[in-house]
């Protein structure tokens, strides 16, 4: 599951994994546990480029079960050849949401998101819109693209079944 911060990867990924009787893996959580630091601290220590290297390493070398549902970090698909790698290894699903909706969802959750914490509330929608426009060329390479506008787990399951 890929998509911008606040797209709903964690919110929908957990119940989707449950329905599929698979483990749910949140890449941000794996990174935090492996490094013993928060995402914010990792960004501060390594800079964004060092953080992206860590994400790539998790994708390539992480020890995971045979089958699982993963929510990637929001930026992970947009660096290196991570998108090709994921498309090759599994089924990718882009949860797509409108910048206005993302801004609304993240308004009170900016502190834990290093790339948004310094953006003023009134600028949030515009900045997200600009950044999303850059990222969509990666996100739209996903095998399934789902608009997350009251999207349900049942709809995700249907899309997965028809894709297979
Ligand atoms: N379809 C939805 N409708 C309304 N609110 C939603 C929806 N999906 C997610 N949210 C809310 O948006 C916020 C962010 O969602 P979530 O944490 O699942 O995003 P995420 O894609 O995992 O983001 P991140 O990349 O930052 O981890 C949460 O407060 C969640 O409750
Ligand atoms: O969109 C992004 O670049 C990010 C999303 C989060 O999942 C975290 O990986 C981090 O906050 C960066
Ligand atoms: Mg998440």
From TrEMBL:
<protein>
    <recommendedName>
        <fullName>Shikimate kinase</fullName>
        <ecNumber>2.7.1.71</ecNumber>
    </recommendedName>
</protein>
<dbReference type="GO" id="GO:0009073">
    <property type="term" value="P:aromatic amino acid family biosynthetic process"/>
</dbReference>
<keyword id="KW-0460">Magnesium</keyword>
<keyword id="KW-0067">ATP-binding</keyword>
<feature type="binding site">
    <location>
        <position position="74"/>
    </location>
    <ligand>
        <name>substrate</name>
    </ligand>
</feature>
<dbReference type="GO" id="GO:0004765">
    <property type="term" value="F:shikimate kinase activity"/>
</dbReference>
<comment type="similarity">
    <text>Belongs to the shikimate kinase family.</text>
</comment>
<keyword id="KW-0028">Amino-acid biosynthesis</keyword>
<feature type="binding site">
    <location>
        <position position="52"/>
    </location>
    <ligand>
        <name>substrate</name>
    </ligand>
</feature>
<dbReference type="InterPro" id="IPR000623">
    <property type="entry name" value="Shikimate_kinase/TSH1"/>
</dbReference>
<keyword id="KW-0418">Kinase</keyword>
<dbReference type="GO" id="GO:0008652">
    <property type="term" value="P:amino acid biosynthetic process"/>
</dbReference>
<keyword id="KW-0057">Aromatic amino acid biosynthesis</keyword>
<feature type="binding site">
    <location>
        <position position="10"/>
    </location>
    <ligand>
        <name>Mg(2+)</name>
    </ligand>
</feature>
<comment type="function">
    <text>Catalyzes the specific phosphorylation of the 3-hydroxyl group of shikimic acid using ATP as a cosubstrate.</text>
</comment>
<comment type="pathway">
    <text>Metabolic intermediate biosynthesis; chorismate biosynthesis; chorismate from D-erythrose 4-phosphate and phosphoenolpyruvate: step 5/7.</text>
</comment>
<keyword id="KW-0479">Metal-binding</keyword>
<dbReference type="InterPro" id="IPR031322">
    <property type="entry name" value="Shikimate/glucono_kinase"/>
</dbReference>
<comment type="subunit">
    <text>Monomer.</text>
</comment>
<feature type="binding site">
    <location>
        <position position="113"/>
    </location>
    <ligand>
        <name>ATP</name>
    </ligand>
</feature>
<dbReference type="GO" id="GO:0005524">
    <property type="term" value="F:ATP binding"/>
</dbReference>
<keyword id="KW-0963">Cytoplasm</keyword>
<feature type="binding site">
    <location>
        <position position="135"/>
    </location>
    <ligand>
        <name>substrate</name>
    </ligand>
</feature>
<dbReference type="InterPro" id="IPR027417">
    <property type="entry name" value="P-loop_NTPase"/>
</dbReference>
<feature type="binding site">
    <location>
        <position position="28"/>
    </location>
    <ligand>
        <name>substrate</name>
    </ligand>
</feature>
<dbReference type="GO" id="GO:0000287">
    <property type="term" value="F:magnesium ion binding"/>
</dbReference>
<dbReference type="GO" id="GO:0005829">
    <property type="term" value="C:cytosol"/>
</dbReference>
<dbReference type="Pfam" id="PF01202">
    <property type="entry name" value="SKI"/>
</dbReference>
<feature type="binding site">
    <location>
        <begin position="6"/>
        <end position="11"/>
    </location>
    <ligand>
        <name>ATP</name>
    </ligand>
</feature>
<keyword id="KW-0808">Transferase</keyword>
<keyword id="KW-0547">Nucleotide-binding</keyword>
<dbReference type="GO" id="GO:0009423">
    <property type="term" value="P:chorismate biosynthetic process"/>
</dbReference>
């Amino acid at each position: 599951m890929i998509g911008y911060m606040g797209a709903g990867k964690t919110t929908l990924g957990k119940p989707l994994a449950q329905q599929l009787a698979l483990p749910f893996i949140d890449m941000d959580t794996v990174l935090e546990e492996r490094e013993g630091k928060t995402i914010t601290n990792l960004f501060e220590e390594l800079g964004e480029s060092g953080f992206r290297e860590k994400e790539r390493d998790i994708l390539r070398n992480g020890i995971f079960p045979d089958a699982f549902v993963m929510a990637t970090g929001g930026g992970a698909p947009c660096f290196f050849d991570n998108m090709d790698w994921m498309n090759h290894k599994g089924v990718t699903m882009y949860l797509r949401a409108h910048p206005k909706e993302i801004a609304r969802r993240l308004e009170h959750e900016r502190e834990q998101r290093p790339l948004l914490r310094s953006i003023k509330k009134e600028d949030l929608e515009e900045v997200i819109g600009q950044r999303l426009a850059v990222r969509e060329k990666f996100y739209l390479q996903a095998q399934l693209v789902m608009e997350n506008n009251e999207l349900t787990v049942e709809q995700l399951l249907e899309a997965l079944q028809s894709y297979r």
